[in-house]
Design brief:
mainly alpha; six-stranded mixed beta sheet; 57 helices; 6 strands; elongated
C-alpha cells in the first residue's frame, strides 16, 4: 500500500528565487497499460488519472484493469515490498540493491521501478548512473524524462537539464508540469544565459494545457524574476494566474524583494492577507531583506515585522531567525542583530553568515571575525564561510592588521586544498588583497588560480583600478579579451575608469565598442560610466550622445550628465555650457526625479561661475525643500557659491547657522570666499579663530590660505602660514608642498621655491606645474624647460596646466619653433586636446617674436572661434610692434574685444595705449570717448611695498604719504645720477598728447618709481620688493635697471604679468617681456 505521488520534500526549502518548488521530483505513476502497449508512444504512457490521485495500487486495482494474470500473489507482494522499501530511498547502497532486485525479479521493463531507481540516483547526486539507467530503459514515459530533468536541476547541472528537456520535446513526449517547472528552474540558475531558452519554454508551454498550471506559473515567476532586470514579466504571469496559491504569493513577493522594490513587496503582502493567506516563514524571509534595504524607514519596518513574527509564532524558527539577524545587521542595528543571534536556540551557518555580512557592511570587520571564531566549531562551514570571512578583513579599522589576518586564512585554505577546487575563494582572496592595498599579493593569487571565471578577471581589473594602477588594469582587460572571456558590466566600468585616469580616449572608445558588441551599453551603470569617461577626457558631445541614447535613467545618470556639463562649463573660458547644466537639472525635475546632495553640488558648481546670486538663492531654496539629510556637502557648496558671487553677507549668515555642522570644508569655503573677494585680513582672522577653537587645520585650508598669500604677494603672511604648517606637521604633505612652491614663487622668492621643491620627497603634477610656471614667471625660461624635461623623465604625465607654463616660458624667451613643437606634442604625444589658453599662449609666442604672418595663419587655422582672452593677447602683441600691419591687426582685435566684452575697461585701455604708442591721438581720443560712453572705469595703477611698519601703497604722482618730501628728494637725487650715466626718458610711454617736458614729468612720478624711492629713504641692504597691479612700462623698466646699478641692491618687481629681477643694471627678462 503506497501513495503514487513521490515528491522530494525538505522543511527548509523556501519558495524564493534560489529554491523554488520547481525542483521537486515528479510523481512516479504506474501506467495502467505498461505491460499491454508500447510505452514509447507518449500518449499511451500518460496516466489518465490525476498525479495527485490517492488511489491504492493493489491487486484489486490490477484486477479492475483486467491484467491480474501478470502478477501472482507472491509476485505482487514482492513488487509491493520493493516499492514500499525504495520509493523514498536516498543512499548509494539502496540504489545498488534496487537495481539488483529489478534484474533478479525480471522487472527490467517496468517503467515505475526504473523511474524510482533514477530518482534514487539523482537524490544521492550520482547523475552518471541515473543517466545510464535512463539510457538503458527499453520503455520510457514522460515521468522518466521528468525524473532526469529534475535530477540535473537539483544537482546544479542546468545546462544538462535544458538539453534533456530539448531531447524530450524532440522525441515527441509532452512534458508534464513538473518537467516544465524543473527546466524553468534550470534557466533561472543560468540567469541571463538561460533567459533565451526560458522564453522558448514559455512560448512552447503557452500552447499546451499546462500554461496555467500552478507549478508552471510559479516556475515562470521565479525564472523571470531571476533572469530579467525588471519584475514586470514576473508580475504579468502572477496577475494572469487563475488560481494563486501560497507558493505563488511567496514567489512574487520574493521577486520584488530581490529587485529592491520594497513597496511592491509589502503591497503584495497586504493583497495576500486579503485573500485569506497567512504569511509563512518564507514570506518573512523575503520581506526582512527588503525592509533592510530602505535607509530611511527600514528600521521602523523591521520592528513591525518582528512584532508580526512574534504573533505568528515564527520567532524561534531557524530560517526566520537567520533572516532577522542578517536584516537588522545590514540596516546598521548591530545590537539588535546580536541579541537575536544570541537568543536563537539553534544556529546554523546561514545565521552566522548573516551576522558577519552585516558587521562587515557596518565596517566592524574585527567583530565579524570574532563571530566566526566563536561559531566555527559548532556549525558546518562551507566555502561561502571562507568567502565571507575574507571579505571582512578589508573592513578592519587598521588595514594592515586585516591584511595580516587575511594572509593567515589564505595559508589555511592552501594547506587544506580549498583554493584548488573553489573559484569563489580565489576571487575573494583577490578582492581582499586589493581592498587592503596589497595589489602585488592580489596579482599572485590571480596567477596561481588553476581555474578562472569572469568574476576572477573582473576582481583583478577592479583591484588595479581602485589602487590607481590604471595602466595595469587596461592591460589586464586586453589580456582578458585575448583569452576569449566575455566582459561583464562591472569589468567594462572599471576598464573605462582606468582609461579616464590615463586620459586614453582612443582605447576608451574601443572598450565602448566592446560594450556595444556584447549589448552591455544598454546597462544603465555602463552608460553612466561612459558619461563619466567622456567627461574626464573632455568629449562633452559624446557625453550628451550617450545620455540621449540611454533607454532608461537612474539618479546617477542625471547626476553624471549635470556634473559632466558643469565641469566642462567651469573649465572653459566662457559660460556657454552653464545653461545646459541648468536645463538638464530642470529636465530631471520635470521627469519626476528628486535631486539629491550630489545633484545640488554639481549644479551649484556650474552656476557659481555666473555670479548670479538670485539663481544661487533659488537653488538654495530647492535644496531646503528636497533634502532632509546629508545636507552638509550642499551647504558647503552654497557657501562656495555665495563667496564666488560676492555675497559674503549671505555666506556669513549661512556659516553662523551651520553651527556644529561646520567641517573643514565649511571653514575652507569661508576662507576661500574672503580671499576671492580680496578680504585677506578676514581670511587670516578666520584662520586664527580656527586655531583658537581647537579646530584642526587640514591641508586644504593651508593650501587655500597660501594661495591667497600668493595672489597678493604677501610673503610675510605666507611664511607665517608656512610656520603653522610646520607646527601642524603638514609641511611634508604633497598638497601643502605644492602650494608652498607656488606661494614662494608668486611672492618673488623663486630661490625659496626652488629649495623647497628640491627637498620634496613626493611630487605630484601640481608640484611640477608650480615650479615650471614659477621659473617662467621669473624669466628663467631655460630652467622652466629643464624642469619639464625632468618631469617627463621621472614618469609624471603632464596635464593642460603644465603646458600653459611651458608655452609661457617659450613666449618669454622668444622660442617660436620650440614652443610650436611643445604645442604640437600635446595631442600627438600626451593625448591632450589644446584648450583656448594654449592657443592664446601660442599667439603670444608669435606676437612677442614679431612673427605676424605666423600669428595670422595660426588664428585662421584654429578649430574654434577666438575668445576674448585670445583677442586681448593679439592686441597686447600689437602694442609691442611698430609696423602698420600690426596697427591694422590691433585695430581688428580691439573692435572684436569691444564687440564681445564692452564692459571691461582693460580692452579700451589696451586699444587706447596702442594708438598712443603710434602717435594716433585722434583714435586714442575716440577710444577714450567710447570708454566714457560705456561707463566703465580703468583700474588705477598702484604699487606697494611691505615694510616692518606695514604696507605702503603709492599711485602715480602720489603726494599723500607722510614722507613725501623725503621720497621726492630721493627721486630727484636718483634722476640726477641716472642722467650722468646716460639715462633719457622714453617719452612715448607717457601716452599723452602733450609737450616733451610734460611727458617727462608724467613719466617721472609713476607709482613704482615713487615706491623704490620710498624704500631707499630707509636704511637697509635687503633686496627691494615692489608689487604693481599693472604691467611695468618700458621707461620704468629702464629706470629700475639704472637704480639697481646705482644703489647696488637687488630690486624685484612683480607686475600683472611676471617678475623682473633687476641686478647691477640688468633684468632677468633680458628686456624681452
Amino acid at each position: 500500500m503506497f501513495k503514487r505521488n513521490i515528491v522530494f520534500t525538505h522543511r527548509r526549502h523556501p519558495y524564493n528565487l534560489n529554491t523554488a518548488s520547481l525542483t521537486f521530483a515528479p510523481p512516479l505513476v504506474r501506467s495502467k497499460d505498461t505491460h499491454l502497449s508500447n510505452t514509447q508512444n507518449p500518449n499511451s504512457s500518460l496516466p489518465s488519472n490525476s498525479p495527485s490521485s490517492t488511489a491504492l495500487f493493489d491487486k484489486s486495482y490490477l484486477s479492475n484493469l483486467g491484467i491480474t494474470q501478470f502478477f501472482s500473489s507472491s509476485n505482487w507482494e514482492k513488487y509491493e515490498s520493493l516499492v514500499t522499501q525504495y520509493q523514498y530511498s536516498c543512499s548509494h547502497e539502496d540504489s545498488k540493491q534496487l537495481h539488483l532486485q529489478i534484474f533478479k525479479n525480471g522487472y527490467t521493463s517496468d517503467v515505475f521501478l526504473l523511474n524510482t531507481l533514477v530518482n534514487i540516483h539523482t537524490r544521492i547526486g550520482d547523475m552518471v548512473s541515473a543517466r545510464n539507467v535512463f539510457d538503458e530503459m527499453s520503455f520510457r514515459n514522460s515521468i522518466s524524462w521528468s525524473c532526469l530533468i529534475s535530477g540535473y536541476t537539483r544537482n546544479h547541472m542546468p545546462y544538462e537539464a535544458c538539453t534533456i528537456f530539448r531531447e524530450m520535446i524532440r522525441e515527441g513526449f509532452p512534458p508534464v508540469h513538473y518537467a516544465i517547472g524543473s527546466v524553468l528552474s534550470a534557466c533561472q540558475v543560468l540567469q541571463s544565459h538561460g533567459r533565451r531558452f526560458g522564453l522558448q519554454v514559455h512560448g512552447f508551454v503557452s500552447k499546451t494545457v499546462n500554461s496555467f498550471h500552478e507549478v508552471v506559473c510559479n516556475g515562470l515567476i521565479s525564472m523571470y524574476g531571476n533572469c530579467m532586470d525588471s519584475a514586470d514579466y514576473a508580475s504579468f504571469i502572477f496577475h494572469e494566474m487563475e488560481v494563486k496559491s501560497l507558493v505563488s504569493w511567496n514567489s512574487i513577493i520574493s521577486v520584488h524583494s530581490h529587485k529592491g522594490d520594497t513597496y511592491s513587496a509589502f503591497n503584495l503582502l497586504s493583497g495576500m492577507q486579503l485573500q485569506g493567506f497567512k504569511p509563512t516563514e518564507y514570506t518573512f524571509g523575503s520581506l526582512i531583506p527588503a525592509a533592510s534595504c530602505l535607509p530611511e524607514i527600514g528600521s521602523f519596518l523591521l520592528d513591525q515585522i518582528m512584532c508580526t513574527i512574534q504573533k505568528s509564532g515564527f520567532l524561534h524558527d531557524l530560517y526566520v531567525g537567520s533572516a532577522m539577524v542578517s536584516g537588522f545587521a545590514k540596516s546598521g542595528q548591530i545590537t539588535i542583530a546580536r541579541k537575536i543571534f544570541e537568543s536563537m536556540e539553534v544556529k546554523n551557518v546561514v545565521s552566522m553568515h548573516g551576522l558577519m555580512v552585516g558587521l562587515a557592511k557596518q565596517k566592524h570587520g574585527e567583530q565579524a571575525v570574532e563571530v566566526f571564531i566563536k561559531m566555527k566549531d559548532s556549525v558546518k562551514l562551507t566555502s561561502d564561510s571562507y568567502v565571507i570571512l575574507l571579505s571582512t578583513f578589508s573592513e578592519f579599522s587598521i588595514l594592515e592588521e586585516g591584511r595580516r589576518k587575511g594572509r593567515e586564512v589564505h595559508a589555511y585554505v592552501i594547506r587544506n586544498g580549498i583554493t584548488n577546487s573553489n573559484v569563489a575563494i580565489g576571487n575573494s582572496l583577490i578582492n581582499m588583497y586589493s581592498k587592503c592595498g596589497s595589489i602585488t599579493e592580489a596579482v599572485s593569487s590571480f596567477k596561481l588560480m588553476t581555474q578562472k571565471d569572469q568574476v576572477s578577471w573582473n576582481s583583478i581589473i577592479t583591484g588595479f583600478d581602485q589602487n590607481g594602477y590604471f595602466k595595469d588594469a587596461v592591460m589586464m582587460f586586453c589580456l582578458m579579451r585575448r583569452n576569449q572571456v566575455i566582459p561583464a558590466n562591472f569589468t567594462l566600468i572599471n576598464a573605462l575608469n582606468s582609461c579616464a585616469g590615463l586620459r586614453l580616449l582612443t582605447l576608451g572608445q574601443q572598450i565602448h565598442c566592446e560594450g556595444v558588441k556584447f549589448g552591455l551599453d544598454t546597462d544603465v551603470s555602463v552608460s553612466n560610466s561612459l558619461i563619466d569617461f567622456y567627461s574626464e577626457t573632455g568629449c562633452l558631445s559624446n557625453c550628451k550622445k550617450v545620455f540621449s541614447l540611454m533607454h532608461e535613467y537612474d539618479q546617477v545618470s542625471w547626476n553624471s550628465i549635470i556634473g559632466a556639463v558643469s565641469v566642462s562649463g567651469s573649465g572653459s573660458s566662457s559660460d556657454s555650457l552653464v545653461p545646459d547644466s541648468v536645463e538638464y537639472f530642470m529636465e530631471m525635475m520635470r521627469s519626476g526625479w528628486r535631486p539629491n546632495s550630489i545633484t545640488f553640488v554639481n549644479i551649484l558648481g556650474a552656476v557659481s561661475s555666473l555670479s548670479m546670486n538670485e539663481l544661487v538663492k533659488q537653488i538654495h531654496g530647492l535644496s531646503l525643500k528636497h533634502l532632509d539629510s546629508d545636507y552638509n556637502a550642499v551647504e558647503n557648496a552654497i557657501l562656495s557659491c555665495y563667496g564666488k558671487c560676492g555675497c559674503m553677507d549671505d555666506c556669513e549668515k549661512l556659516f553662523s547657522i551651520m553651527g556644529i555642522r561646520r567641517d573643514e570644508t565649511s571653514w575652507n569655503s569661508m576662507i576661500s570666499g574672503y580671499i576671492h573677494n580680496e578680504l585677506l585680513n578676514k581670511a587670516m582672522d578666520l584662520v586664527k579663530l580656527m586655531l583658537t577653537n581647537g579646530q584642526r587645520l587640514d591641508r586644504f585650508t593651508f593650501a587655500t590660505v597660501l594661495s591667497a598669500c600668493a595672489s597678493i604677494a604677501t610673503l610675510e603672511r605666507g611664511m607665517e602660514v608656512h610656520g603653522c604648517g610646520i607646527r601642524a606637521e603638514l609641511d611634508s604633505d604633497v598638497v601643502i608642498g605644492s602650494a608652498l612652491v607656488d606661494m614662494y614663487s608668486k611672492c618673488g622668492r623663486i630661490d625659496y621655491a626652488t629649495r623647497f621643491f628640491n627637498s620634496m620627497r613626493v611630487k605630484n603634477v601640481y608640484s611640477w606645474n608650480s615650479m615650471i610656471s614659477g621659473y617662467a614667471r621669473h624669466g628663467h625660461g631655460d630652467k622652466s624647460l629643464e624642469v619639464f624635461t625632468k618631469m617627463t623623465l621621472e614618469g609624471q604625465i603632464p596635464d593642460h596646466v603644465t603646458f600653459v607654463g611651458v608655452l609661457s616660458a617659450c613666449s618669454h624667451m622668444g622660442l617660436v619653433d620650440q614652443g610650436f613643437d611643445y604645442f604640437d606634442s600635446m595631442s600627438k604625444v600626451y593625448g591632450l586636446n589644446p584648450k583656448m589658453e594654449h592657443y592664446s599662449c601660442m599667439v603670444d609666442v608669435f606676437g612677442r617674436a614679431g612673427e605676424l604672418d605666423k600669428m595670422e595663419d595660426f588664428l585662421r587655422k584654429m578649430p574654434m572661434e577666438p575668445s576674448v582672452l585670445m583677442w586681448r593677447t593679439v592686441l597686447g602683441a600689437c602694442c609691442r610692434g611698430n609696423s602698420e600691419r600690426m596697427t591694422d591687426l590691433g585695430r581688428t582685435a580691439g573692435e572684436k574685444l569691444l564687440e564681445l566684452d564692452s564692459n571691461n575697461a582693460v580692452n579700451y585701455v589696451l586699444l587706447s595705449n596702442m594708438y598712443a604708442l603710434r602717435g594716433n591721438w585722434e583714435d586714442m581720443k575716440r577710444t577714450r570717448g567710447l570708454m566714457k560712453q560705456a561707463e566703465v572705469k580703468k583700474e588705477a595703477g598702484c604699487s606697494w611695498v611691505t615694510m616692518k611698519d606695514g604696507v605702503h601703497v603709492f599711485v602715480a604722482s602720489d603726494r599723500s604719504h607722510p614722507e613725501t618730501d623725503a621720497i621726492y628728494q630721493k627721486l630727484k637725487e636718483l634722476k640726477g645720477k641716472m642722467r650722468e650715466m646716460g639715462y633719457v626718458a622714453e617719452t612715448r610711454y607717457a601716452l599723452r598728447d602733450v609737450e616733451i617736458e610734460n611727458q617727462e614729468e608724467i613719466l617721472s612720478y609713476h607709482s613704482e618709481k615713487i615706491a623704490v624711492a620710498f624704500v631707499l629713504t630707509r636704511k637697509s641692504e635687503m633686496p627691494i620688493r615692489i608689487m604693481k597691479n599693472l604691467r611695468v612700462c618700458g621707461d620704468c623698466h629702464r629706470f629700475l635697471k639704472y637704480v639697481s646699478k646705482i644703489v647696488g641692491r637687488l630690486i624685484v618687481v612683480r607686475d600683472s604679468n611676471r617678475f623682473h629681477h633687476f641686478d647691477d643694471g640688468n633684468c632677468s627678462c633680458g628686456d624681452y617681456w
